[in-house]
Amino acid sequence: MFESARLPQKMTKKDFKKLEPKLREALLEAQLPMVEKQPFSTLILVDGLDGAGKGEAVARLYGWMDARHLVCNAYGEPMDEARLRPPLWRYWRDLPAKGDTAIVFGSWYQFVLRDWIYKKIDDDAFDKALTRIRRFEEMLANEDVLILKFWFYLPKKVQEERLEHIQKKQAARHVLADWAALKHHKKASEAGEKIILETSKGHAPWFVIPSQDPEYRDSALAQTVAGAMKLKLEDGEPHSVAAPPIVGGLKRETAVDAIDLTETLEKEEYHALRDKYQQQLSELSDRKSLSKTGVVLVFQGNDAAGKGGAIRRVIRPLDPRIYKVHPISAPTDEEKARPYLWRFWRRVPRRGHFAIFDRSWYERVLVERVEGFAGHDDWLRAYNEINEFEQELTDFGFIVQKFWLAISEEEQLRRFKAREETAYKQHKITDEDWRNRLKWDQYAIAAGDMIDRTSTHYAPWTLVSSEDKRHARIKVLKTICDRLEEVL
What we know:
The protein is of the alpha/beta class. It has two domains: 4-251, Rossmann fold; 267-487, Rossmann fold (3-Layer(aba) Sandwich), CATH 3.40.50.300. It has helices at residues 13-37, 54-64, 80-83, 89-93, 108-117, 123-142, 156-169, 176-183, 185-199, 214-235, 267-285, 307-315, 333-336, 342-345, 367-370, 376-395, 409-421, 431-437, 440-454, 469-487; strands at 41-48, 70-74, 101-105, 145-153, 206-210, 246-247, 250-251, 295-301, 323-327, 354-358, 399-406, 461-465. The strands form three sheets. The protein has a five-stranded parallel β-sheet with strand order 2-3-1-4-5, sandwiched between helices. Strands 9-10-8-11-12 form a five-stranded parallel β-sheet, sandwiched between helices. The protein has a two-stranded antiparallel ribbon with strand order 6-7. Helix 1 runs parallel beside helix 10 (214-235), helix 2 (54-64) crosses helix 10 and helix 12 crosses helix 20 (469-487). The longest helix is centred in the N-terminal third of the chain and has 25 residues, at 13-37. It holds the Pfam family PPK2. It comes from Roseibium sediminicola.
């Protein structure tokens, strides 16, 4: 997770200065009707890594909103009064009234997270705590509380630089805890991933905010709060799943946008590497240890990105008896009559076999999201359902590898035209392909959200530049071989 948040999203001070009055106006246009009509209250949770600027962002938000109906509740280690009561008591005590907004530092997640990192609780207690939190948030949402949860993310290197800068300004004792947290950056990120995966719901969504650039960070926070409040006023739902795709007129760069499409491979080198990795894949597939696992390969990407060609190079060295390629198209009437994951569960391979998906369950959060075939709540909850599905496979011992093949809009147009002009390729191009091209930006945003929400440590996405097909095919083959070599 956090792939897009790792990118250095930037906004110039000039652009920020121009945007700031609009942000203030949008926040007040959302907050003041809420104060007047009092249809709901708002909880804004600010969590994430130390040094990410959470305090600075909230201070700015305070300056932009009507502070008379805004309170900041900061929670440290529980004192005697709180220790004598259940952990959620102090949060219940401080809930805002309808029409008011509370910003929460040190939320119910913070102490569960720290206790798990420092091994005060085990995995089972961690899971039980998240279950209690989900029930708590669901009840609040049912009682007209708008819950907005923000995770401020920093790459480890940037976090270290921030802490060094802070230490120069403050006495060492003030930052000792932050330096201790830096040592646990990897574990904190894994725990944050688990928290977000398991507790981001339509009624209480998480928003991952890239925090390297203060202007972008604060603009994304303000724009998200204003947008969610406005939508809640209009129809009762926050209707958002990630940081806004456009902040102040600047498109949020996603992990898909950051793929280097200039990577190429010469023909001679390609043939040598293809033969090398196909031979390695053949040998790996013959190992007895393969009988203890199953392999699930998922291929998604832009139309005409070369998924079929990459799949053909993967299956060429495999024994046809141990693999099955599943081309996924629109669901049949039989499949529509059942939960959407049903048709994929039916295609799960047995141990010792490969299942290769040319498109997959991810169509739920791509085509079905963009084209409106799945409602907002349906595709929003699908992230968690997909992650749980893949975790069930990996917990059983399966290997799940997912590839996103990316090309530019210009290269796609060139390939579409080539398909139309080549008789034996004409079946590959349809009117639907041309219609989907008109929604390029919407699909790019959906793909970015998909990768952010479903690239887990147990089933990560591999992002493949497919502008040059030779490079893409080798990247896929090598990634599969490396993973099998590691496991088998």
